[in-house]
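Morning F.,

Quick status update on the modeling queue. The single chain you submitted on Monday has been processed. Sequence for confirmation:
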Amino acid sequence: MLSESSSFLKGVMLGSIFCALITMLGHIRIGHGNRMHHHEHHHLQAPNKEDILKISEDERMELSKSFRVYCIILVKPKDVSLWAAVKETWTKHCDKAEFFSSENVKVFESINMETNDMWLMMRKAYKYAFDKYRDQYNWFFLARPTTFAIIENLKYFLLKKDPSQPFYLGHTIKSGDLEYVGVEGGIVLSIESMKRLNSLLNIPEKCPEQGGMIWKISEDKQLAVCLKYAGVFAENAEDADGKDVFNTKSVGLFIKEAMTNHPNQVVEGCCSDMAVTFNGMTPNQMHVMMYGVYRLRAFGHIFNDALVFLPPNGSDND
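Structure tokens below.
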């Protein structure tokens, strides 16, 4: 009887210790989860006009000159018609734009990455850009040739963001525990994020060339994994009304969806007035976008923009 009581007490004591250990581990895990949650993406909004008007005219002019955006466009030979359209349209508004190709293409000037793998192309393009332009540009915008970008809206969105901080912006997507910026809407990195990424490119444990997995993941997810090790986390870009400004669809598709879902509010239900990108564009659609965004004007109507971004020196932009 005494032996049974002793065994019972030992069981109770061991059970109590086990429960305490599980509870403690649970708290450690929960605490760690909270820290990770703190770093998860949040919603960054563009500045409002009232904030800009508080800045003096001289400061506004200085700001417009200080924002320099370097554009990276990843292309393949099969993208030649899109490549031509991108070159003739929105990239003229970048402070500098360069095309990074999977192989040498005689038709257009590009930087040959000598690989068909999109993640290796992206890595090499970021390294090239950082090594060559780290002292000349404070923001780096990467896009596919199916993307149309309004660079002035990008600069406006970034106006109150400090490039010496680790920004990683665009249209965020959640995949399991990973939060990443989808390449379809374009990816923006500050110079600080570029610096951190560059420091990891030669550390395969943290930023592997092939991902080190049985299955292959997309290049935008691979980028997010590397940046996460560098303490850089995805942030969704929105306007003051909470609408996305980096879009992964074309304007036409957005309007079609709005007509179905919001027939009485097609415009309001479609897109942000401060949209930065649209994706899934054909070459003809890019030229139409260029006409609508930059060339079409209502005679006699004055746009009271609080800030003007001057075109790059020597640019033939619209």
